[in-house]
Design brief:
With 808 residues, this protein is α+β, with helices and mostly antiparallel strands. The protein has five domains: 128 residues, Agglutinin, subunit A (Orthogonal Prism), CATH 2.90.10; 141 residues, Agglutinin, subunit A; 133 residues, no CATH class; 90 residues, Phosphorylase Kinase, domain 1, CATH 3.30.200.20; 211 residues, Transferase(Phosphotransferase) domain 1 (Transferase(Phosphotransferase), domain 1, Orthogonal Bundle). The chain has a seven-stranded mixed sheet with strand order 36-37-41-42-40-39-38, sandwiched between helices. Strands 29-35-32-33-31 form a five-stranded antiparallel sheet. The protein has a four-stranded antiparallel sheet with strand order 1-10-11-12, with no helix packed on it. The protein is globular, with a radius of gyration of 33 Å. The two termini are 67 Å apart.
Length: 808
Amino acid sequence: MASFFHHLFCFLLLQLPLFISAQTYNNITLGTSISNLQENPYWTSPSGDFAFGFYPHQNLFLLATWYSKIPVRTVVWTANDGKPVERGAKIELTSNGVLSLTTSNGTEIWKDEAIDNSQVAYAAILDTGNFVLSTAESEFVWATFENPTDTILPNQILDFSKQTDTKLSSRVTEDDYTIGKFELELQSDGNLVFYTIARPTQSRNEPYWASNTVNNGTQLVFNQTGYIYLTLRSGGIRSLSSERPVSTEEYYQRATLDYDGVFRQYTYPKSSPRNGWPESWSTSWSLPQDICASSFGGVGSGVCGFNSYCRRDVEQRPECLCPPGYIFIDPGNTFKGCKPNFTQQVCEADESRIVDGFEMQELSNTDWPFADYEWFNNSVNQDWCEETCLKDCFCAAAISRGGSDCWLKKFPLSRGFMNPSSDRIALIKVGNSSAEGNSSDRFPPTTVYNGNNEEKRNWILLGSSLLAISFALNLSLLIYSACYKKQTKTQTATRSFGPNLRSFTYNELDEATDGFKEQLGMGAFSTVYKGVLKSDTGCLVAVKRLDKVVQGNDKEFQAEVSAIGKTNHKNLVQLLGFCNEEAHRLLVYEFMVNGSLENFLFGSSKLDWKKRIQIVFGIARGLAYLHEDCSSQIIHCDIKPQNILLDESYVARISDFGLAKLLKSDQTRTTTGIRGTRGYVAPEWFRNMPITAKVDVYSFGIMLLEIICCRKNVEADVGDEDIEILSDMAYECYEQKALYLLVADDEEAKNDGKSLESMIMVALWCIQEDPILRPTMKKVTQMLEGVVEVSIPPSPNPSSFSNISPIG
């Protein structure tokens, strides 16, 4: 009996906090209402920390929840999509248990979205800030915590397994609470992502931040101690910040997806400090740390609107600015973008007429990296870049870098940002204010003649004279052009083909390489030499001499090389030019100071885990560009670590892409008719199957395993048949949940178990023997970045293919 009472006492003790909590509700009974015409049109929580009701806002009212005890009264939830209401509005808990917002004339404009309001017995605003509709048994039928807007509070959880919203939507501006363009969502696959929305539609752009917890994340928790973290299916948690939070006993706390797209945790003291109340909340941490430099993908305006650029202010918050010659579309919302403050350039046949009235203005350390339509990488200086943009009526701005690169940007400019350490200079095309002010000097005004024949004759004479001068100038230009073309046709000096490529003479490249002296590498069909272009202020280049290429058709060779030269992606090695002289076929590439990826995987100097992950992402994006974004699809046919070069920042650059177009049809490294290198060649090469871009996907999968494990796919000298083939070993380790065996000597990789598992799964999908089952490189990129879920891969063994569906 004593034992029974002991257990009963413990049970009641555990229930005591719940009982006390239930008793502290300030219950709002059915049929109760408040109007914003009242003196205090709100209900408060028992402690008085929170209020729910009509919050005064710019002579209107928001139906909201806010911190009510502190001087900085802060809204943490809004109804009606943040749209304010006029005086005379009423919020009522009806006799049917519905929370209804009506205007002064009785029109309902918002109500709760509870599944079954018939069970509602009362409503309450709790001390946690949660406004609830509750049954008589204190079970919540509807709650603001389960329908968040832009803020979460301590004790609040976003859980995709419940039938509730699992996302936060930013407001438009600090003072405009309607729904903005940024969203945070815990997706059903367990990945927490931040992305932008192309308002007024619901179309999502690519995430600019992701937790990479696909198939693992379950809840986003803001616990009572102030920690914000993701709970994981695999056990444990993933904290969003390494900062230790301050006490919730001493500080109010909130986490808000702000109108600038940054997710921040804030604190505010519950009691007045010695020097009085602070004027604002303090920021504990934020994600992403630099939203200006975050990647927003290929479309959309980014953090700021079109034709503007992002710069971090003294508090490291993003600030949207207009480039020279532009003004804000809406000065009250600088994130909405900018518009030209001048009449834009018009395309005309007469080039001198095009540039008249326009000039270029300089903006240092600034770039719009996703608005390119031309790239000149031919040792062009800033003056040349300015002049080229000025004469191009399609050019809105140009970016010059180091006297060697020039990017032309189209209108509108997108995803711009300023980086103080950047060496890029933005050249903005604007209307020349002095020219616009004297437009009457350039164009005759519209005139009403009033029968003045003398004035008419003067205008006719002036027009005739101008026509005569124009005719003479055009005739001179035609004669000069004909002579110039005849002269250049006979020249054997260096010529330019297309906007990006140069045609070198063999003697130039022989001199640049000092007689092909310093060899950088050798393949089955080419040898690469280090060179210095003396005509280009000592620019370092890599000169590839092709031994077995299609010869005898100069025009075809030039056309193919020109097509390769038009590619433009940060994860491709840029082709600068070529030589097609007699029997000589050479290609000139930009020089990569860190050489090939092979040296950092299989040599003594290995890259750390995080760098390898970034290299994987870069290679995937480069291949996706070749397969889907070029004017004509390019299949690489020889993806391997030797063909991945690393620049000074260890950014991956794919080399030798497009060379399959230039090789003889019987050129091979393994079997006749096959392109590629043994160990990386897709099975369909051996089966007379049609060759598609999926052969590159297979090679990428093999190389991905090598990058993860820092070992070659085939190692015949390991002395153990079970681990001789890495791709076979990888599936066995995955099936037996022993992936740590693949990275036995890499503690950093073993500690990042989720990323390791995700990349192994992607690799196993890529190396499926049936090409139909392999994903496209675009899908591979999305899986790696956590945008789409990675499903469980089957065995690459063809015997298990019978009931498997392709994943796209």
